[in-house]
Write a structure and sequence with these properties.
With 99 residues, the protein is mostly helical. It has one domain. Helices cover 45% and strands 10% of the residues. It contains 5 helices and 2 strands; from the N terminus they run H-E-H-H-E-H-H. A two-stranded parallel sheet has the order 1-2. The chain is extended. The mean pLDDT is 79.
């Protein structure tokens, strides 16, 4: 970080953050499933509470995920693993969590 001191002035005050971008895959890897045995349980008990906690601090939250381009190694790996039930989260579900 010392190399950045030459081109930028460090700020010590923490202004209000209005938006945040989260890497969905990194969040999933970061949060431990605990006693959850299904993705639905993990989503309800671990993942969504984490996302909702950020929504209490910011006015906008963008959650981004990897894209599996046709012919890529990621796409091939995903095909080998098969497909399962997908869970879609809409704003109504988040609003319910906020109460």
């Amino acid at each position: 970080m010392a190399c950045l001191d030459n081109i930028a002035t460090p700020q010590t005050d923490c202004s209000t953050v209005q938006a945040i971008v989260l890497d969905g895959a990194a969040v999933v890897q970061m949060l431990h499933p605990g006693q959850c045995r299904t993705f639905s349980g993990y989503a309800d008990k671990v993942f969504m509470p984490y996302v909702v906690s950020w929504l209490m601090k910011v006015s906008r939250l963008d959650l981004v995920w990897d894209q599996y381009l046709p012919g890529s190694l990621k796409a091939a790996t995903q095909e080998k693993r098969g497909s399962g039930v997908r869970q879609s989260v809409c704003i109504g579900q988040v609003a319910e969590k906020l109460g």
